[in-house]
Amino acid sequence: MENRHDEDLYTRDRPTHPTLPEDRPRGAQPKASVSHRGPWLTAGLIIGVILLIFIGIALFP
Q1: What is the Cβ-side half-sphere exposure of residue 18, based on CA atoms within 13 angstroms?
Q2: Is 18 helix (H, G, I), strand (E, B) or coil?
Q3: pTM for this model (two decimals)
Q4: Neighbours of 37 (CB within 10 A)
Q5: SS3 for 22-60, per residue?
Q6: Residue 26 phi, psi dihedral angles, 5° rounding
Q7: Which of 15, 16, 40, 53 places its Cα 20 to 30 Å from the Cα of 32?
Q8: CA-CA distances (angstroms) from residue 49 to 8, 10, 11, 42, 60?
């Protein structure tokens, strides 16, 4: 079995320029913030589920 150094092992299959360009370059201006629908949608969904439960209990006692 051939005796190899760590450097040979890691450089054997690497391309000539192994660094990749950054996918999120530093120093760029931030984009506009994402607008959230706010707590009204969540509150409406919770109230809707509670009403559905109460209606189900009232119709099928």
Answers
A1: 6
A2: coil
A3: 0.42
A4: 8
A5: CCCCCCCCCCCCCCCCCHHHHHHHHHHHHHHHHHHHHHC
A6: -75, 150
A7: 40
A8: 63, 58, 60, 11, 16
Distance from C-alpha of 52 to C-alpha of 59, rounded to nearest angstrom = 11
Tokens of 18: 């192994």
Residue pLDDT, tens place only, 16-51: 776 777 666 676 666 767 677 778 889 999 999 999
Spatial distance between the Cα atoms of 41 and 46, rounded to a whole number of angstroms: 9
Write down the pLDDT at residue 1: 47
Q: In this structure, which amino acid lies at residue 9?
A: L
Residue type present at position 17: H
Residue 51 tokens read as: 């009403």
User: Over 80: is that where the pLDDT of 15 sits?
Assistant: no
